[in-house]
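Appendix B.2, paired examples.
Example (i):
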Amino acid sequence: MKELKTGNFYGNTDQTHHLDGLVLTDTEYTIPRTEWHFHENAYFTFIIAGKVLECNKRESFNCEEGTLLFHHWQEAHYNVKPPGYTRGFHLEIHKEWMEEIFPSQSSPEGSMSIEDPSIKLLFYQIYREAKIQDDLLKPATEALLLKTLSLLTSRTGTRDRNPLWVPKVREIIYDSYHEPFSLRDIAQELNLHPVHLSRDFSKYFNCTLGEYIRKIKVEKSLSMFSRHDMTLTEIAHQCGFSDQSHYNRCFKQLMGLPPATFRKIIRRC
C-alpha cells in the first residue's frame, strides 16, 4: 500500500507551508478515485469547495463544503471524487510535534468527522492565516491548533459520559438551525424541563444555547462561501439570520472580519 509523505496529497497542490512540525497544504482534488493509501503524518482535512467520498476499513465519510476530518497516521483509506471542482485544505502534524503536546496522554486516534462548530470555526481561522501569509502564520497557526486539539480531546474524552439528551439536542439544533425555535420547543421535544436544559446546556457545550446556535449558523454560512451562485444576503437568509446586518454583526463577532472580506479569502486559489 502506498504511503504519502509529508506535504503530498492526490491532486494539484497550490500552496504548501512548512512550520516546524506542522505542514499546511491547499490542494485541488483531480483524481476520480485514488488507490488505497495512508499518510506519514496525522492530519486534518477541511473541504473548502466541492464534494468527495472518503472510505476507510470501518466507515465512509460523504464530505462536502465545511466537512472537517481528522486522521491518525497510517490510517488506510481511499477517495472518490464526483465530477466538478473539489478543493481541500490539509494540516499535517509530525509525530514528534504531537508527542510533545501530549506527553502523558493519548492524542486523538483513528479517523473521525468533526461536527463541533467551535472547532470548525477555529479551522476557518487557520485557513485564513494560511491565506494571509504574514509573519504571524506560525505562531497564529500553533495557537489555533492547540486550542483545536484541546477542544477535540476534551469532547471525545467525555462523549461516553454525556447524558442521553446531549447528542439529541445537538441533532435537533443541526436539523433546525435555520428555522425559528425556542428553548421551550427543544425542551419539550427532549421531554426536559426548560430550566434544566438552560442550566445544564453550557456544562456540556461550553456556551449558552443562543451562542451555540449562532456558531452553527455562521459555520454553515462559511461552508457556502465558495458557491458563486449565492449572494451574501441569500446565504444569510438560508442560514436563518433575520437580516443582513444581523448576520454581519454575528459573523464579525465570531470571526473577526466582515463576511464579505472573509469570503474573498475563501475564494482564493
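Example (ii):
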Amino acid sequence: MKTFTKTLFIISLYACLSNAQIDSSLYFNDNVSLLYPTMEITKFNNPSEDYLFLGLTSGGSGNLLIVDNELTPVFYRKAEGTVFNFTWQPDGELSYVIYPVFAYGLDSSGVEINRFYTPGGVALDVHDLRVLSDGSYYIIGKELVTVDMSQYVSGGDTAAALITNSVHHMDADDNEMWSWYAIDHYNILDVDQYVDLTQHQIDWTHCNSIEIDTDGNILLSTRNFDEVTKIDRTTGDIIWRLGGEKNQFTFIDDTRGFSRQHSVRRLSNGNLIMFDNGHYLVPEYSSVVEYELDETNLTATLVRRYTRNESVFSQSRGGVQELPNGHILISWGESQNPAVTEINEQDSVEFEMKFVSYAHQYRAYRFKWETNLFAVSPDSIDFGIVAVGDSALAELKLYSTKDSSVTINEFFINDNSFSVLNELPITIPSQDSVTLSVMFKPTAEGYFKDRLNVRSVNDTMLIGKQVYLTGATTLVSVEDRVNSPVQFSLSQNYPNPFNPSTKIKFTIAKSPLPGWDGRGGLQLIKLVVYDLLGNEVTTLINKELPAGNYEIGFNGSNLPSGVYFYRLQAGSYSSTKKLVLLK
C-alpha cells in the first residue's frame, strides 16, 4: 500500500534585484519620491486604451502600478516583498499576492479590504487567484507530501518531500466550497523527463493558472507535466489532458507542442491560448500558442504561434490576455526587453515596452479602471478653436466621494499649452466639491491633445484621475468654423453627476466618414445610453442628420442612481463617455 503524509510548508525565496528611480521631472513634482523600475516604450501604433496593470519587484520592494499608454501612473502603491499577479477582479477589487503565502484585496482607493486564504493545513500558492463577481474565489494551494520514491524510481528517496498543488473554491467569507487535490488524480510518474525524481524535495506539479471554462469546469495549467488538465467542477474527475506524458489529443499542424507553459485561457472564439515558455524544447524560445480544440474527437489544431522571430526566451513566468478589441497582451516573464507586447489579430505589434532597470514581473494585464477616492467632471474638455497667443478657460469640478476630505497635491500635464491655474494643495471637503480653472493657451499653430493628471500622493501611494484635453488653432474665419464643422466630437454631458436631467452636446462633421451613403449630405446618427453591464437603457437619436452642432437632453428620473454610458455612432466614427446619476 502506497502511503502519503501531508505537511504544511513555506518555501523561502532569495532574489537579487536592482531598483531605479523614475526621474522626478518625468512624472512627479519635487515633493514626491516614489521608487519603481524604469520603463520605456519601444513600439507604439494603435494599442488598447485600457490601463496597464504591472506588479513589479525590485531590490526586494514590491510596486503595484496602473499606468496609461505613455507609462504615466494613475495608481501606485508600495508593497513589502515580491509581488505576483497584480490584477483587477470581476468583483471590483484589485488583488495581488506577496510571495510566499499572502494574498490581498484593495478597493480602488488603495485601501486593503480583503485577504484571501486556503483552507487550514494548506499553504497558499502565489501563481493564480480568480475572484468571481459574487466575491467567491478560486485559489491554488500547496502542500508537502512525504512519499517513498523508491517505489517509483531507482535511487528514489524513501522519504521524499513532494511539492503538490490543489485547487480550492472559497466563498466570500473564506469557507471552502469545493476542492481538488492533484495527488488524488495524477500519477507520481506523470512529470516530464526534466523533473528529477531522485531528489529529496521534488517540485512535482507546479500548477500556475486556473481558468473557469465556459461550461463551468476548470482548466488547470500543470507546468511540470507540460499539461493542461480539464477538471469536472462537480465530480473532480479529469475530463481530458492536453500535452505532456498523458496527452490524449492528436496535434494537427503542430510538431513543436508546448513546454513549461503559463497562463492557459479560453478565448472568446472558443479556442485555447497559453504562454508557452518553450523550456527544454529545441530550439528554446517562448511563444503565444493558440489551439482550436475538438473536445469530442480530441484534436488540437494549431491556429497561431507568435514567437517574435524565435528571439525571446523566458524560462519562467509569463502570461497572455485577450483584450476587448481582439488584441492579445503578452507578458514575457523573465525577459526585460521586450517585457510587455500587445499584438493585433494579424500579429502586428501595437504596443511594446521594456524595463530599463531590472524588474521581476509575473504577469501584466490591461483593464478599464478608475479610483473612487474622488471624481472629476467633465472627464474631457474640448477648448475648440483658440488663436495663437489667445487663451480659453474651462471649469473642472472635483468631487469627494468619501466621508473624509481628500487632498490633491499634484497636477501633471506634458504639454505646456495646457495648465491649471489653482494653487496646490487643494482640499476637497467630504461629500463636497471644488472647482479648478483649466487654461488652453497655444503658442504655435496646430492641434493639441493631452491628459491632465489630478493626483493625491503620499510617500507610499499615488492615486490619480485623468482628464482628456483638446484644443486647436485655425486660420479660417469664425463663420466658416461655426457653419462647417470639420471634426466629429462628443462632449461630456453637463451637469455630471446629474439629477435627474442632463444635456449632451455633439458635432457632426461636414465631410462624411466611410460607412455613409452621402444622400443629400445627411448622415445616420445613433446616440444610445447603456447601463454599467452594457444593457441598452434608451436610444436618444437614431436618424439621419446634416452636419452641425447639436444638443439633446436626457432625463433619468425613472432610473436608479449609478454609472451609465452614452455612445455616439456615425458611420465609422464612435465615441463613448460616462455619466453619473446621483439621486
